[in-house]
């Protein structure tokens, strides 16, 4: 299938079950597929997190390989960070299921390290920079952090799967706010969450949260944190 630069397409999908990425045109036509099951560069095991930088490079977080891969705009592998043998780790720059991340304007990556209950920041070259959090329910602690988004002010928004809440951190990792209408218990009402996963923020500041348990997306007006 044709190799096409991501700079000319509309959508990239992490096809976790098939261990590949699929590339779609603005009209929804499939124009490329990258990868297959494996541990070599350009191969994947349960790809889940995706992000693009301003140069069109694609960053892929692999649940199964416990690593982050960087691909060029045409899918060529450039680098990988984290596990070299598929095993997770808890040291700086190591991951235990990196399932979500976002790219900051500086080019650094902020990564939801699900199994280690922490957030890591690494440089665009893969160097560990900082990490925050541990397992728990207090402010600044996490229960399986999953989705990450960065708002126009540089604040970091994190969904927590098992804590059923959303936390907001400063760019330095200081906890600013948390949202959970049911006190970190699953809930179905407006503003309540049951296993929240993805999170995104539009240019106007509105926040969108996907929920695995409630099979829905909630939209929140721009928050003043």
What does this structure look like?
- The protein has 225 residues and is mostly beta strands.
- It has 2 domains: 9-98, Thrombin, subunit H (Beta Barrel); 133-224, Thrombin, subunit H (Beta Barrel), CATH 2.40.10.
- It is built from no helices and 18 strands.
- The protein has strands at residues 11-15, 20-24, 30-34, 47-52, 58-62, 67-71, 77-82, 98-103, 109-113, 118-122, 128-132, 145-150, 156-160, 165-169, 175-179, 196-201, 207-211, 216-220.
- The protein has a 4-stranded antiparallel β-sheet, with no helix packed on it. The protein has a 4-stranded antiparallel β-sheet with strand order 8-9-10-11, with no helix packed on it. The protein has a 4-stranded antiparallel β-sheet with strand order 12-13-14-15, with no helix packed on it.
- Strand 2 (20-24) and strand 3 form a beta hairpin.
- The N and C termini lie far apart (46 Å).
- The mean pLDDT is 92.
């Amino acid at each position: 299938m044709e190799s096409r630069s991501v700079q000319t397409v509309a959508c990239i999908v992490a096809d976790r079950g098939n261990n590949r990425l699929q590339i779609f045109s603005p009209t929804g036509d499939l124009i490329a597929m990258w990868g297959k099951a494996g541990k070599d560069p350009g191969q994947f095991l349960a790809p889940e997190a995706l992000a693009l930088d301003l140069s069109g490079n694609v960053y892929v977080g692999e649940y199964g390989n416990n690593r982050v891969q960087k691909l060029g705009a045409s899918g060529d592998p450039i680098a990988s960070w984290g596990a070299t043998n598929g095993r997770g780790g808890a040291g700086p720059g190591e991951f235990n299921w990196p399932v979500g991340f976002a790219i900051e304007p500086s080019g650094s990556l902020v990564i939801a390290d699900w199994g280690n209950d922490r957030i890591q920041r690494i440089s665009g070259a893969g160097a560990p920079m900082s990490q925050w959090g541990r397992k728990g329910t207090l402010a600044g602690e996490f229960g399986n952090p999953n989705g990450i988004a960065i708002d126009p002010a540089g604040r970091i928004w994190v969904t927590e799967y098992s804590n059923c809440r959303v936390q907001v951190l400063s760019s330095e990792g200081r906890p600013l706010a948390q949202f959970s209408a049911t006190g970190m218990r699953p809930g179905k009402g407006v503003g309540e969450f049951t296993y929240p996963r993805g999170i995104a923020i539009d240019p106007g500041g509105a926040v969108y949260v996907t929920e695995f348990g409630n099979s829905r997306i909630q939209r929140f007006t721009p928050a003043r944190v």
